[in-house]
Amino acid sequence: MQRVAVLSAILLGGVAVTGALAQGLPPIADAEQVSENVWRIPGNGGNSVVFVRSDDVVLVDTKLPNSGESILAEIRKITDKPVTTLINTHSHPDHVGSNAFFAENDGVQVVAQANTAARMREGGGPFPPNRVDLEFSNYRQLGEGADRVDLYYFGAGHTDGDAFVAFPEDRVLMAGDIYAWHMSPLIDPSSGGSILATPTTLTAAYYGIDDIDTVIQGHGGTSTWEEFGSFMTFNRGLVQVAEETAQMGGTPADALARLEAIPSFAIFMGDELLPGLEYGGTPRGRAYINLMVAFEELRGEEPELRMGIDPAEIPARTQ
Ligand SMILES: [Zn+2]
Asked: Over pLDDT 70: what percentage of the chain?
């Protein structure tokens, strides 16, 4: 039953953290071309990614429920080829919500990492179970040559089933929600997510996936490989500072002060809401949340899901 509550919180929380239900999520916007054959469709949940192949289309993630027609309309502006493959980066309803719209068509194969596949088949609360036809554990290649897609799993982070989806010919990587808003990731402990595991997972991805120029975030825009590397370094630093501060008997607030004293981390510690992504909160708020999560994980507790934080609860800057 806890999973049901959490899934509902993910859905409603994404809206609620804006502080105004009426504000809601940004609607689906025009597809943006990322590379020769890859497009990103923003809005109404996580990014969807469209990969146009020789004879067909691979779609990654399907946003919140009732987005299918809008996603397909964006795809039809790009190509008439059929969607034959649907890949989900993880099981959250803002990424699998409109799977059924595509999966009900003949011959569509739904692909997910094994842990994510188990959660998708289970469903929960208001969210129906979703079919998965092909699952992978750590690595899987789909297609050949220019049509090739590489699927990777390196361990827990946002959930325990975060897939990285690479399009090697286009040198593009869809990172899913372990990398969203270019800030420390939202951790969903009840889906197996872990901030302590996140640096190891990101490091394995950074050194284990070659020849990528552009990284698509789960929510937000695109980044360079160098920016993804700096994001990995920041999360390594966040967990290291949390561990050192906890060992010294300090608090998450103490750790926050130490973290923001590191100049190269400034971009991940901003106080501004990101335009169009206000529902994600501020980078500094997310860093503080994840320091609290890290302390709880270090104590062996299961952290609560924190979609956002009241700005009044974030400690003031010390410098
Ligand atoms: Zn998610």
From this structure: 92
Q: Which pLDDT band, with edges at 50, 70 and 90, does 24 fall under?
A: low
Dist. CA 183–CA 260, nearest whole Å: 14
pTM: 0.92
- In the reported structure, the alpha carbon of residue 114 is separated from the centroid of ligand 1 by a whole-number distance in angstroms of 16
Give distance in angstroms: CA of 97 to centre of ligand 1: 11
Token couple for 202 = 């990101």
Q: How far is the CA of 94 from the centre of ligand 1 (A)?
A: 7
Q: Distance, CA 223 to ligand 1 centroid (Å)?
A: 19
Residue 8 has pLDDT above 70, yes or no: no
CATH number of 2-313: 3.60.15.10
CA 29 to ligand 1 center in whole angstroms: 19
